[in-house]
């Protein structure tokens, strides 16, 4: 059944950026030595990573006010996570949980390149998220509430937090942005599909890749990226029937496209030598949303998203390569990403 949805705020171009609120888990991140083996005396650098905080940091670096809502453990890693996110200029609303630890993930390298990400988040503080953790005033005052399909996978409490945040946003006129971001390691397709489809139907702006589109549409998962842009456009049209006013399909090497008011817009991918692709999707979302709150045309939102995605791919880390507004301007020509 198709549900009509608004497209959300699109202020005139040139107005000051508005605020984006995110909700989700951020974990401490350990990275193995370049060869991947951990031995006695190995140094494992400590960082942070989380889809929603990645987006918030990307926005903050572009001068867009951003708030991150979550829970962390009352431990050294929780303190570190909060400090790092605040240092990037993001407003942090994170309860300290003295009954559960901060989540942890391990990035395993092979030949100096990321090979596998392992998560240690079962029973983490963020898995105890609930509707009570949602800062209703922040959501109501925001231009955009951005959520991902990772948070509801953490358990019934986090799902309730997501649903409450959406209800708050919709009652206050805040645009709801939803990135499917399906993680097979967190829940099976059979369990995830109905939940993610329902949440997607409540969104005003939906982000998905081809495999995630197949999950929502109940079709077979594609083995490869779409061979052409029209395949991606067809997916966008089908996803739009769920209700979102704008559907953005990320097409990897083909770039990205958006369907809004029945009109399809496309921006090609930026040329880049990939160093670490983890976090590229979050960077794309941050770039796109920066355009949304600034009133930019859809095509410009896509182009900015592609620029940020390429920038993150060109540097190690989940978010460290995110550019500032000044750096973005230097990358906005047709040359390769500066690295």
Automatic annotation (TrEMBL):
CDD domains: KdgK. Residues 20-324 form the Carbohydrate kinase PfkB domain. Keywords: Kinase, Transferase. InterPro entries: Carb_kinase_PfkB-like, PfkB_dom, Ribo/fructo_kinase, Ribokinase-like. Pfam families: PfkB. It comes from the Bacteria. One of its GO terms (molecular function) is kinase activity. Transmembrane segments: none annotated. Signal peptide: none annotated. Belongs to the carbohydrate kinase PfkB family. PANTHER family: 2-DEHYDRO-3-DEOXYGLUCONOKINASE_2-DEHYDRO-3-DEOXYGALACTONOKINASE, SUGAR KINASE. This is Sugar kinase. The lineage of its organism: Bacteria, Bacillati, Actinomycetota, Actinomycetes, Kitasatosporales.
């Amino acid at each position: 059944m198709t549900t009509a949805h608004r497209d959300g705020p699109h202020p005139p171009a040139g107005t000051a950026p508005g605020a984006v609120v995110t909700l989700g888990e951020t974990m401490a991140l350990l990275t193995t030595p370049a060869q991947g083996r951990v031995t006695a005396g190995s140094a494992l650098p400590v960082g942070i990573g989380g889809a929603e905080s990645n987006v918030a940091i990307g926005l903050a670096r572009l001068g867009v006010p951003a708030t991150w809502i979550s829970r962390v453990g009352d431990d050294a890693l929780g303190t570190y996570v909060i400090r790092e996110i605040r240092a990037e200029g993001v407003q942090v609303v994170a309860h300290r949980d003295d009954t559960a630890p901060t989540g942890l993930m391990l990035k395993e390298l092979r030949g100096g390149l990321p090979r596998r990400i392992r998560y240690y988040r079962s029973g983490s503080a963020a898995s105890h998220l609930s509707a009570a953790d949602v800062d209703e005033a922040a959501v109501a005052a925001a231009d955009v509430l951005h959520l991902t399909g990772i948070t509801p996978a953490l358990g019934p409490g986090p799902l309730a937090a997501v649903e409450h945040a959406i209800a708050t946003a919709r009652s206050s006129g805040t645009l709801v942005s939803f990135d499917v971001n399906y993680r097979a390691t967190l829940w099976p397709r059979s369990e995830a599909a109905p939940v993610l489809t329902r949440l997607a139907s409540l969104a005003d702006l939906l982000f998905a890749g081809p495999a995630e589109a197949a999950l929502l549409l109940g079709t077979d998962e594609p083995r490869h990226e779409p061979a052409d842009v029209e395949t991606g456009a067809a997916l966008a049209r089908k996803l739009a029937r769920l209700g979102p006013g704008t559907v953005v399909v990320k097409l990897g090497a083909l770039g990205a496209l958006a369907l809004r008011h029945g009109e399809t817009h496309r921006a090609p991918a930026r040329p880049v030598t990939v160093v670490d692709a983890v976090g590229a999707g979050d960077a794309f979302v941050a770039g796109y949303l920066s355009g949304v709150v600034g009133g930019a045309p859809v095509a410009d939102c896509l182009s900015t998203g592609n620029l940020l995605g390429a920038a993150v791919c060109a540097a190690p880390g989940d978010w460290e390569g995110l550019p500032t507004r000044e750096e973005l301007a230097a990358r906005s020509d047709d040359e390769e990403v500066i690295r």
